[in-house]
Design brief:
The complex is a heterodimer of chains A (534) and B (344). Chain A has 17 helices and 19 strands. With 534 residues, chain A is an alpha/beta fold. In chain A, strand 17, helix 15 and strand 18 form a beta-alpha-beta unit. In chain A, helix 12 runs parallel beside helix 17, helix 14 runs parallel beside helix 15 and helix 15 runs parallel beside helix 16. In chain B, 37% of the residues lie in helices and 12% in strands. In chain B, strands 1-8-7-6-2-3-4-5 form an eight-stranded mixed sheet, with no helix packed on it. Chain B is globular and about 60 Å long. The chains are: A alpha/beta (534), B alpha+beta (344).
């Protein structure tokens, strides 16, 4: 065993960075242990007690970074040391003041340096976001407002101001937009095409855009509006503007609107705007049964159906409203050019021997809401806890659970689960080892901004959970929201998940339907899909 | 008023370091340390997604973009940051009363339901549970070694705090035999009789302490993290000690003894940031999530969900510091609860 100590004098990093550093070194081949410590007296003593005898240890001060390594070979220790240097250099480069060109210190300076820009992306903390967004509007720029925790009064004022100026405010809390093929926030790399999206739901936009891409269609623009836009107080200002913008866009032939829980009056006004825009509009309100459409407006029962109808309409196969006002699954495959996106769901479910409680652990909030609705419509009682899930001694409660691991109480001070899966993987291990839990339902979101390689971590968590269950089976069903153009390699992600015994479904809606049928323990699975689809 | 107005800052700043000159030291992704010229307080600029720490100021990070080496001059409520280059001068103005991060004399009575069993049943992060001797220690190596040391020292410290008001700064190794995590059996807890009620499992850190040790020296500067874990544990203990002092739950002289001990930590014993945080702990000031967790624990100890929620928020603060502070506060609360449960 090779022991090595490396000291970086005066190298001070925050704890989160030190944790990542230690984790990356520990993941290296033939490295048994890597510990990153500050060179305090107690830690120097600790190293000596643990057998590290390099005299350099005694030269360390509390402000020095000490990395202690145990590796199988000299080569492995050398490789770890080289990796350490690389990681520390990268860390320092990212935060130091050594850039050749100072970044703009103010919005005005940035606009001066880039007069051609017509959009300002705002990601400052909520308390300051309105101030920056207002300045951007005053400078005549559209705004992509990624920040959350912006007071609703500020949101209303910003959107009214933007509307008067003919500008768009995407947000606050806008996770996804795609403008002219450029993704903002979390976005998938999709083909450009004739379908325009307006959405008050980040993962809803991502899921639809990926489904459109998979079906051979393409996206002209996707305009995020922020999750509160269709609330009564905000009044759907930016949803209406987004629809009008897309109606005026010559590259857009069909418009899809996706949102969660709109206020009824606002929804009615939005429908009027949609009906008068001159282009076919498909609307999906997540977690709600479809309303009856009017004129060129059609309400879809699922994201899959919305994507299918939009693609067919854009291709000239059928206008969305040419389908009878029933759910797509009532249509036979191929009818009116709309193949059933949920055909074969029952067969998939039958192939899985899942019994016991179902726990959905989602990274995407909209997908979690949609899955909960599917389960409820299938007759299951589903709880969505408003607190961190309790897993000791077993998973809390007795019924099925759907958890959005992007909820604030999981993410305060932490990256979103679409970026860092540590919390979700921990929950997978804990929930999965509970013998009362028989089915896990997961989503995996790819694309720019998302985790660079999510499948291995999720697979490892599922493996660990199964190992603790012994012979008791655990059915794991997952959907992957991504495209073949995304940087994570969609097929590889699916392959890794499948190799771990995870049943991969092509969409979140379909995964939820398969899971719902699996959870119908002790009864014969119906021939159609649940959730009002059969 | 010109410049950028900030509302979230430690209220303590309004009465201290009102004339301050220095420069920006380390810049991290979500914080930057401001060093004074000569002696004085360290100040901290924080990304507002980060909760406040003593002498912290939440700033609009994207607008401020602190850079190492920049000069900072404070005059009253106004801070001027500049690199000397054109367009790089920024003004920050503290507005309002700021946020109190201090425990004052506690007049609010602790709510009903504080019990050892209740505290032990809480769902806690693995690292915290390991430090509390509730299982989950790493399989081996240095990580396991320091966690065992820290867990044992923590148990001894809180036991000592509940037994006496004086905490020696330098505690000699006085154990005559194995105890705590490394011993085959544990000694009975002097105050709770826990050891008499049931034998503690082998390798379990004694959450309730034992008769030996108890000095803070065993924790200062120990473990991983930019603020070493042992220091964060001491902060957690301090916060709970402040909150539970009085009311016959923890004798005030015990708290004073502990604060004396913290004041005796020599300058080179740990990192600069740790020393600063421990200095603030002596005046009863703590990072926001720790303050909130301890307040919730004291006022709603029977509301497991509420306590767990605050524990989860605390645990998620910092890289590892939150879990370590949580361990310190939980151990202290358990020791206090155990003391209450001893029949007169």
């Amino acid at each position: 065993m090779i022991e090595r100590v490396v000291i970086h004098a005066g190298s001070y990093h925050d704890s989160a960075r030190l944790m990542r550093l230690a984790r990356e070194l520990n993941d290296l081949e033939d490295v048994d242990e890597a510990v990153v410590l500050m060179g305090t007296g107690m830690n120097r003593k600790l190293l000596a007690e643990a057998g590290f005898s390099d005299p350099v240890i005694e030269s360390a001060s509390p402000m020095d970074l000490v990395v202690a390594l145990r590796a199988g070979t000299e080569q492995a220790a050398d490789a770890a040391e080289a990796q350490l240097e690389r990681l520390l250099r990268a860390a320092t480069r990212g935060i130091s003041a050594g850039d050749d060109r100072a970044p703009a210190a103010s919005l005005e300076q940035a606009v001066e340096e880039h007069p051609e820009a017509n959009l300002v992306s705002v990601a400052v903390p909520g308390a300051y976001a309105a101030y920056v967004a207002r300045r951007a509007l005053e400078l005549g720029k559209h705004v992509f407002l990624f920040s959350d925790n912006v007071p609703v009064e500020d949101e209303i004022a910003l959107k009214q101001s933007a509307d008067e100026r003919g500008l768009v405010v995407m947000g606050p809390d806008c996770g996804t937009s795609i403008l002219g093929g450029v993704g903002l926030g979390f976005a998938n790399r999709v083909r450009r095409g004739a379908i325009g999206l307006v959405g008050a739901s980040g993962t809803g936009i991502q899921e639809i855009s990926c489904l459109v891409h998979a079906m051979g269609g393409g996206v002209s623009h996707a305009i995020g509006t922020g999750s509160r836009d269709l609330a009564a107080r905000v009044g759907g200002i930016m949803t209406a503007r987004g629809i009008r913008q897309l109606a005026d866009d010559p590259d857009t032939a069909v418009i899809v609107l996706v949102a969660k829980h709109p206020d009824q009056d606002v929804a009615a006004r939005t429908e009027q705007v949609a009906a008068g825009c001159g282009k076919p509009v498909v609307i999906r309100y997540l977690g709600e049964p479809p309303a009856a459409g009017t004129g060129s407006v059609h309400y879809a029962a699922s994201l899959d159906e919305a994507a299918r109808r939009a693609v067919d309409a854009a291709a000239g196969n059928a206008a969305p409203w040419q389908m009878p006002p029933a759910t797509v699954t009532q249509a036979k495959a191929g009818e009116a050019g709309h193949p059933d996106p949920f055909s074969g769901v029952a067969d998939d479910a039958r192939s899985l021997a899942g019994t016991g409680r179902l726990v959905g652990l989602f990274g995407g909030g909209s997908l979690a809401a949609e899955a909960a609705q599917v389960l409820r419509q299938a007759g299951h009682e589903v709880d969505t806890p408003d607190h961190p899930l309790r897993t000791e001694p077993g998973v809390e409660g007795e019924g099925h659970l759907v958890i959005d691991t992007g909820d604030d109480f999981y993410t305060v001070g932490k990256p979103h689960p679409m970026v860092d899966q540590a919390v979700r993987c921990g929950l997978i291990r804990k929930a999965g080892r509970d013998p009362a839990v028989g089915i896990l339902l997961l989503d995996v979101v790819l694309g720019d901004g998302a985790h660079p390689d999510p499948a291995p971590e999720l697979a490892a968590a599922v493996d660990a959970a199964r190992a603790e269950r012994g012979d008791k089976p655990l059915v794991v069903i997952a959907s992957v929201c991504g495209t073949d153009r995304d940087p994570q390699d969609l097929e590889r992600q699916k392959r890794l998940l499948s190799a771990a015994g995870i049943h991969v479904q092509p969409s979140s809606g379909r995964a939820a339907r398969v899971a719902a049928l699996c959870a119908t323990a002790g009864t014969t699975a119906p021939s159609g899909a649940p959730g009002g689809m059969a | 008023m010109t410049g950028i107005v900030v509302h979230r800052f430690d209220r303590y700043l309004l009465g201290h370091a009102r004339r301050w000159r220095g420069c920006i030291g380390q810049v991290h992704r979500h914080s930057a340390v401001l060093r004074p010229e000569g002696e004085g307080l360290l100040l901290v600029l924080l990304h507002p997604d980060r909760e406040l720490v003593p002498c912290g100021i939440g700033v609009p990070w994207g607008l401020i973009r602190p850079r190492a080496g920049e000069r900072v001059i404070r005059d009253g409520r106004q801070f001027q940051l500049e690199t000397g280059g054109p367009g790089r001068r920024r003004m920050l103005n503290l507005a309002g009363e700021g946020v109190s991060l201090s425990f004052k004399e506690q007049s609010v009575r602790t709510g009903p339901g504080l019990s050892v069993e209740g505290l032990r049943a809480l769902s806690l992060p693995v690292r915290t549970r390991a430090l509390l001797g509730l299982g989950g220690l790493p399989a081996g190596g240095l990580e396991r070694r320091w966690m065992r040391k820290a867990g044992r020292a923590l148990g001894n410290l809180v036991a000592r705090l509940c037994r006496t008001g004086r905490v020696p700064r330098t505690e000699r190794k006085r154990r005559s035999g194995p105890s705590g995590p490394e011993g085959p059996t544990s000694r009975p807890h002097a105050a709770t009789g826990e050891g008499r009620r049931r034998a503690r499992p082998r390798h379990a850190v004694d959450l309730y302490g034992n008769a030996g040790g108890g000095g803070i020296e065993d924790l200062v500067g120990l473990g991983t993290g930019s603020t070493p874990a042992g220091d964060d544990i001491l902060l957690g203990v301090a916060a709970a000690a402040w909150r539970f002092a009085g009311e016959d739950r923890l004798r005030r002289e015990a708290l004073e003894g502990y604060l004396d001990a913290l004041g005796g930590i020599p300058a080179g014993a740990t990192t600069e940031t740790s020393l600063e945080m421990l200095r603030h702990a002596r005046r009863g000031a703590f990072p926001e999530p720790l303050l909130r967790f301890v307040a919730t624990l004291a006022e709603h100890p029977g509301d497991a969900r509420r306590v767990e929620r605050e524990a989860a928020l605390l645990a998620r603060s910092g890289g590892q510091s939150g879990c370590d502070m949580l361990a310190g506060a939980m151990a202290m609360a358990c020791a206090v609860a155990a003391r209450l449960e001893v029949p007169a």
